[in-house]
Amino acid sequence: MIPLSFFALVSCEKFIEVDPPSTVNADNVYSSDATAASVLTGIYTNLSKSNITEFSSGGVTSVSLFAGLSADEIKLFNPNYATYAFYYKNDLSSISAVGTANYWGTIYPIVYVANSAIEGITSSNTLTPSVKNQLLGEARFIRAFCYFYLANLYGDVPLILTSNWQTNSKLAREGTTDIYQQIVEDLTAAKGLLSQNYLKSDGFSSTTDRVRPCKWVASALLARVYLYLGDWQNAEMESSLLINNSSYKLSALNDVFLKNSNEAIWQLQAVGTGVNSNTGEGKLFVLPPTGPNNGSFPVYLSDYIVNSFENGDQRKLNWVGSVTPTSGTTTYYFPNKYKIGSVNTTPQEYCTVFRLAEQYLIRAEARAQLNKPDDAQSDLNVIRSRAGLGATPANQKQPLLDAIMKERKVEFFTEWGNRWFDLKRTNTVDALMSSVTPTKGGTWQTTDQLYPIPKTELDKSPQLIQNSGY
């Protein structure tokens, strides 16, 4: 019988070469609702861990941290701190990428589990039909979620859609067009399979926790994907579905990142206890009175972000904290969206992956591109109003697009790599980073916008070709 821990903790010593487990009997795992559901629960548990092996949940290896370092969001206290300096200075190599943030090596095992789940759930004849649909929808959503990040971090990547290790070990990289086509296919299928309600871990009981994907979670990622693809009409349509859903409302600024906030579309529930019972983001970003250091608090907010807020923007007041250590005169600003750091308290904040504010700005951008300036302006002003700002003066296409990008910068800073991805998808990364990177001690090359495939992965899979510039 396959141990459930295999699905939750499968290690991928070979990047896409997963050794065939000799004791696996998937029929046993997918013969009951409870054991089948636990496979997907294991994925969410791993995503919620903020330790040295994960790419999510705001911890020391999270994409929120490293993409923020790569962009203009976060400043490294010690620019030569080896763990982070390569990302901060945009000076990665295939060897340095093997270190702390090897996303290639941490995301593909999740893809493998999702593929195994899709196969096992599809072939099962004993699962309750509604549970079978829900779990299959969750697995397809997770696969799409993983490929979205792989494509945006690395560009072309192998498109692995089975658990057959012999087939997977021979796959070369697929173009991002094909990757995005599969993402859209998976998310469209997931929308048709997933429940409209948030469910408990049993796969059928409703809950107020927004930690297990439902139809609306798939729709949120699909709206973002259409935006990235330049499919403005579908981006407008998908985001409108969420904006018009009464289950979601913009929260007060200090309530946005609380567990089960009205604004949350999908959150990750902390799985730790004591000082680890809240978010990795809070533990990492909230500075102590002594300020940043070379240990647990290596980063703080860059001037590029701090100085981007308009006068009167309540996000700066509520989402940016500051400390001035008594030993000096320097004031350090830090992301304060998650306010509970290393405090022994009950869970109050969940790591927020998707939220309603993004859907307003997706729709605003899509409408601007569709030459609907009044509608775009209206959506943009909803977000500005929540921040205590007046209406935007932008009323034509390009000024509106510029205003929306600025709004995204101060709305989504240090959230899931959104800023880094925005710079790349709008083709503004070269112009900005050419001036920013030298201030961080590095030299920008256009090839720096994609991370290198770690050398360890290339050595194991000789059919893979490294990204240009590495």
UniProtKB/TrEMBL annotation:
The keyword Signal applies. Residues 327-470 form the RagB/SusD domain. It holds the Pfam family SusD-like_3. Keywords: Cell outer membrane, Membrane, Signal. Residues 14-227 form the SusD-like N-terminal domain. SUPFAM superfamilies: TPR-like. Belongs to the SusD family. This is RagB/SusD domain-containing protein. It comes from Niastella koreensis.
